[in-house]
Amino acid sequence: MVDFDQCSCAGINLDKLIQPMILIFLAEQELHGYGLVQKIMNSPMLKGTKPDPTGVYRFLKSMEGKNLIISSWEFVDSGPPKKTYRITGEGMACMEKWITTLKIYVRSIDDLLNAADKILEASGVENSRYASETPADPSIKSANPIP
């Protein structure tokens, strides 16, 4: 039997979206790595699931190598120094490209869901698209609910 909680269909493979999340969060404000991990974890996309911090730091290092972000050390009186990250001009351009790409994905996914709904409706499955949808925030409404 398939464990759907650990299946890609449950949305557990969203690590590809970590980069645009980092760019967006750093466009809002400079952050330490730990602060980024917390913001990613608390995003609606991950629903409180903590991302692998090592993976996030790998993304940060890779993004810094591509000049999408830069870092500086913040020295404080108590505790170890902290690395603060901020977005660069190239990072802003990358974020804009991500936004365009994500909008295309949203339209494509919506088209795919509409096609699946028609198939399921034709096969007698009731309220296929939103029957089991339980958004993390009940105030969030889908853009295209099926009447």
What labels describe this entry?
elongated; disordered C terminus; Arc Repressor Mutant, subunit A; 10% strand; 147 residues; 3 strands
Task: Give a description of the structure.
With 147 residues, the chain is mainly α. It has one domain (4-122): Winged helix-like DNA-binding domain superfamily/Winged helix DNA-binding domain (Arc Repressor Mutant, subunit A), CATH 1.10.10.10. Helix content is 46%, strand content 10%. A three-stranded antiparallel beta sheet has the order 1-3-2. The two termini are 33 Å apart. Residues 127-147 are annotated as: Disordered. This is PadR family transcriptional regulator. It comes from Desulfomonile tiedjei.
How confident is the prediction overall: mean pLDDT?
83
- The residue fraction in helices comes out at 40-55%
Into which percentage range does the β-strand content fall? 5-15%
Corresponding CATH architecture: Orthogonal Bundle
Radius of gyration computed on alpha carbons: 19 Å
CATH topology: Arc Repressor Mutant, subunit A
Terminal residue distance:
33 Å
Number of strands: 3
Pfam families: PadR (PF03551)
Region (Disordered): 127-147
Protein name: PadR family transcriptional regulator
Domain Transcription regulator PadR N-terminal: 22-96
Helix and strand topology:
Layout: H1 18-28, E1 31-32, H2 33-41, H3 53-65, E2 69-74, E3 82-87, H4 89-122
Antiparallel strand pairs: 1-3, 2-3
Helix pairs in contact: 1-4, 2-3
Organism: Desulfomonile tiedjei
Domain Transcription regulator PadR N-terminal: 22-96
InterPro entries: Metal_resp_DNA-bind_regulator, Tscrpt_reg_PadR_N, WH-like_DNA-bd_sf, WH_DNA-bd_sf
